[in-house]
């Protein structure tokens, strides 16, 4: 059981909903401003991704160009260590690279981990678990394998410290040591702390806040039935683990929009009154690929309206990593710009692929140069080899080969900005190799580091927020908590995803994890834990572990829906992407909402707003017509082709007016018909 903490301050509990949180923090900030200057007020958020939103909300309370002091726990801890510690804080990519090298030859004590280490995904799986243990600073004491992993993590941290480095997972604990030491007054320069998203503060976060606040005035705001980050590792409301000298409750009001009311329904299973404002639409398609195509089409239709921008829209997934990058690739494939706070585009960046090809050439012997990939100027690369410094050499190549100019010429402004950022990240990797004693500063080492970063980019998410570029926001649900978008698309609302099966790690079977008392997550549970954490009941399962994780998935949907200010789209597909095309069941949460909330309706038939959608319609219409003819022959029925003939005539007229592009589409249509007749072109 987590130790109960006592705070000398005020705890304000507000009802679920982004509107309530934004209203509460604005009111509290306004009250504090009556006696304090803005520079003397520290506003602390639970997540790096929400700081800009709260900064904008509170900025409206200040006159002129004044800016509120808003930061996250992680960023504040980074600032503390930058003032007091000489060690270098590793980026996520560099940490992953060094951990991979450290674990490659590590000797495990337990037989289970020795056998598991032979699996291709082992290091990635151990990496994820080590990351969780590091951020929470927990010490498993009962499960031998967890003790073994913790010992490896401690050894990794010692190895980093010997070379003057630390990983981001150590930030809070290391900065806490500073705050509880003699340097506290040197790094604290405010009189009041206003902490928001307190419901997401881990035990270590709460200890950090306690040490940080010291003798300052402290006000914490916690949102009811909204924790998704903390409840992944700690059951029950945060109020079960803390006490304050003063506690108050915020006013509960009726949700002002239909998306907000739907979010409240997902969070608390209550049916609010219909405000009549906004819309909640169910966007259903046959397959997951078609789902993404329809989302892209709907986004283009929305942005075509006056006053809408791409950054007014968010697309949210349950998980990060590849789930996010798949959507980014699908949207960018239709010409829609995207942005993400937690996933970089390093893996699919053409500039990085070109740079990687050059580094591979420089890293291998002349006889081993591959005969595929981007065309390279080998004479220029041979001159690169004459430069002693890796960083200077790769920077010279990027400039002399015209890489920067090619990025500017072939990419849209938003994409170009992202690609320049990725190239700078590659430069920093080369600089790191030269400045550290961890790894030899050779082209081979640089190649391995780039390849690993390139390979794992779609699977790994960042622990820090990245710069936004102004496109459609694509992120996992937790990353958009307490943000506000005019339209939000929640994807993959099928039962295999929401709730899906309980999952914590690939390293151990789920049944074993569920019985581990010292696993760094919510495992050993009884019914009282479920009831204390969630007011909803969405499954008939008698297993508390399954019940808990089912309700947790429902709460994630609530958090995502709460980010929609005007339009909420619940997206799903009918058939799984399997050889048998098994039918997908709609999420039980969406089914219940559709039955209980009268304003949840099916989306209108989308208009064709993009060239890709037009091509898809043309080709599918030909396929449908051919299928009707085949059915007529096989089933001895009569079908009318008048409508098809009229549509094909209109298509023919349109193609004739479309120049060379029309000729290309006409050729594609002709190939479809020939293929349906069994003719294969050579």
Please provide a written account of the structure.
This protein has 682 residues and is α/β, with parallel strands linked by helices. The protein contains 26 helices and 15 strands. A 7-stranded parallel beta sheet has the order 11-12-10-13-14-9-15, with helices on both faces. Strands 3-2-6-7-1-8 form a 6-stranded parallel beta sheet. β2, α2 and β3 form a beta-alpha-beta unit. α18 (413-435) crosses α19 (443-456) and α21 (527-533) runs parallel beside α22.
Distance between the termini: 71 Å
Q: How would you characterize the largest beta sheet?
A: 7 strands, parallel
What oligomeric assembly is this protein in? single chain
Radius of gyration: 28 Å
SS content category: alpha/beta
What is the strand content? 5-15%
Choose one word for the global shape.
globular
Percent of residues in helices: 40-55%
Strand order of the largest sheet: 11-12-10-13-14-9-15
What is this structure's SSE topology?
Elements: E1 5-14, H1 18-33, E2 41-45, H2 51-59, E3 69-72, H3 73-84, E4 88-89, H4 92-104, H5 111-116, H6 122-136, H7 144-162, E5 165-166, H8 171-179, H9 184-187, E6 192-195, H10 203-213, E7 217-223, E8 242-249, H11 258-268, E9 279-285, H12 288-303, E10 313-317, H13 322-332, E11 338-339, H14 350-363, H15 378-384, H16 390-400, H17 403-410, H18 413-435, H19 443-456, E12 472-476, E13 485-490, H20 510-514, H21 527-533, H22 544-562, E14 564-573, H23 588-596, E15 600-602, H24 611-635, H25 642-656, H26 659-676
Parallel strand pairs: 1-7, 1-8, 2-3, 2-6, 4-5, 6-7, 9-14, 9-15, 10-12, 10-13, 11-12, 13-14
